Amino acid sequence: MATIGATDGGHPVRFLSWNVRGLNGPVKRTKVFSHLKQLEADILLLQETHLKLDDHNRLRKPWVNQIFHSRFNCRSRGVAILISKRVQFNPSSVISDPNGRFIIVDS
Q1: What is the largest CA-CA distance in the chain?
Q2: Where do the annotations place Mg(2+) binding (predicted)?
Q3: Which residue numbers belong to the known binding site?
C-alpha cells in the first residue's frame, strides 16, 4: 500500500492495488470487500474483476464514493478504481479500454 498527498481530514491518501481474481461469487466478494474495508485504503485499484457491465453495481459499498470500471464482454479481464468517501475527487476525463485491460481517470 502506498501513501501520497492528503485527504480532506488531513491524513495521507492510501492506495491499494490488488488482483482479486474474480468477484462474481457473493461469498468471495463479501470477504474481499470486508478485508479491503479493514485496510482503510482511500483509493483501490482492482485487477481481474471478471465483471460484465451489468455487474458493476456489485462494486457499490457504503464507504465507496466513486467507481470507475472497465470490463470485457464476458466474465474475464476487468479492472476497477474505487475511491472512498474520505477523498474529494472530481474526474475531468475517463478513458476505458473496451477489452477490459485498463482504465485511466484524470482530474
Answers
A1: 41
A2: 19, 48
A3: 19, 48
